[in-house]
Write a structure and sequence with these properties.
DUF1266; mainly alpha; DUF1266 domain-containing protein
C-alpha cells in the first residue's frame, strides 16, 4: 500500500497523521512532535513519551501492541459511551438531572456524569476519535520500537484516519469527541484529567497548519504521480 503513494503525498499525509495524534501528547513536546517524527535515536524525552504511552496501554511486546491497537480500532470504550449516551439523550434536562441524582450511589455514576456533560457538545455520542487518535500515535511509536513494519504502520494510520473522516466533519468536531473520550477513559481507570495542553490545542489556537497544510478532508487514496 505505501508504495502506491508518491513522495509528496506521503509527506503531506504524515503531517496530517502527526496533527491527528498530537491530541495524545500533553505538555511542551506536543508541538515538537507535530513538526518532527519519532526516530530511532535514544533521545531522553522521546523515550519518556514512548514509555508513558506503553505503560498506559499495558504494551510490553509486539503481541500486546497489536492486541491493543485492534481494541482501539474496534472499541476504545466507544460502545459503552454510546450506550450511556443513548440512555441520557432521550431525557429532558430536568429528567436527566433527576436521573443522575437517583444514580449517585451506582457504580456507573462517574461515567454517566461525564456523558451527561457532553450531551450537547457531542450529539452523536461517538467518541471514536479517542481510540483512533491513539491508533495513529501508537503506530508512530510501534515502528520505531520495532513492533511494526513501516508498511503496517502506514496501513493502521490510513485506516484510523479514514474512520475519523467518516465520523467527523472538522478539526473542532474531532477535538470535542477526543476530549470527551479521553475524560471517559480516565475516569474509568480511576485517573484524573491532566491540565496540560495537548499538541492539538496549541495548533488550533496558535497555528495555521490545520487550515493550510493539514486540512481536515485530506485525500487518503493514492494520487497519480
Amino acid at each position: 500500500m505505501l508504495k502506491e503513494y508518491n513522495v509528496k503525498q506521503r509527506k503531506r499525509l504524515e503531517m496530517y497523521f502527526r496533527c491527528l495524534s498530537s491530541t495524545c501528547i500533553r505538555g511542551l513536546l506536543g508541538r515538537y512532535y507535530v513538526v518532527y517524527e519519532f526516530d530511532f535515536s535514544n533521545v531522553f524525552f522521546k523515550r519518556g513519551l514512548i514509555k508513558n504511552a506503553c505503560e498506559r496501554w499495558n504494551i510490553e511486546d509486539a503481541n500486546s501492541f497489536h492486541r491493543q491497537i485492534r481494541w482501539l480500532l474496534e472499541d476504545g470504550n466507544r460502545a459503552e459511551y454510546r450506550s450511556l449516551h443513548a440512555r441520557l439523550a432521550t431525557l429532558s434536562e430536568t429528567s436527566r438531572s433527576k436521573y443522575l441524582e437517583a444514580h449517585k450511589d451506582h457504580e456507573d455514576f462517574v461515567n454517566l456524569k461525564v456523558v451527561a456533560q457532553g450531551i450537547h457538545q457531542l450529539p452523536s455520542g461517538d467518541i471514536s476519535a479517542f481510540g483512533l487518535a491513539w491508533v495513529i500515535y501508537l503506530s508512530r511509536i510501534g515502528y520505531v520500537e520495532d513492533y511494526l513494519k513501516k508498511e503496517e504502520a502506514w496501513e493502521y494510520k490510513i485506516e484510523a484516519a479514514r474512520q475519523l473522516q467518516e465520523r467527523y466533519s472538522s478539526w473542532a468536531d474531532y477535538y470535542i469527541a477526543y476530549s470527551l473520550g479521553s475524560k471517559f477513559s480516565l475516569v474509568q481507570s480511576g485517573g484524573l484529567d491532566n491540565l496540560f495542553e495537548t499538541g492539538l490545542q496549541k495548533l488550533m489556537r496558535n497555528s495555521s497548519i490545520l487550515y493550510r497544510e493539514a486540512v481536515w478532508g485530506q485525500n487518503l487514496q493514492p494520487e497519480a504521480t
